[in-house]
Design goal:
This is Zinc finger DksA/TraR C4-type domain-containing protein. This protein is 62% helix and 0% strand. It is mainly alpha-helical. The longest helix is centred in the middle third of the chain and has 32 residues. It is elongated and about 60 Å long.
């Protein structure tokens, strides 16, 4: 991977980290418990609980992706960056630009 390509991936990665941090903040707000003294009806409370479960699931996914991005960004500038963790081949630049948290090349990612 050239320095120019690595810089491009770095920028995409930093932008993605910023977006995910914002999304995590928003989801944490949405998953706060509903107070028992809240004056809403039974159906609305059930809807809130259902939406809270969905938001909690999304929050876990975002936090996992954020952790993966931080771990991968720590390897920027090393010989490991941009290499498939399974086969050692270089990960296509377009894949890294689309999914900067990718640690597998497309070939290895498509295998079980």
């Amino acid at each position: 991977m050239t320095e120019k390509e690595e810089e491009k991936v770095r920028m995409v990665m930093m932008e993605k980290i910023h977006e995910l941090k914002k999304e995590v903040e928003d989801l944490k707000e949405l998953t706060k418990p509903l107070g028992l003294d809240s004056a809403i009806g039974r159906i609305s409370r059930m809807d809130y609980i259902n939406n809270k479960s969905i938001n909690e699931s999304q929050l876990r996914k975002c936090e996992a992706k954020l952790k993966a991005l931080h771990n991968w960004s720590a390897k920027l500038g090393t010989t490991e960056f941009g290499k498939c963790s399974r086969c050692g081949n270089e990960i296509n630049i377009n894949r890294l630009l689309f999914m900067p948290e990718s640690t597998l090349c497309i070939h290895c990612a498509s295998r079980p």
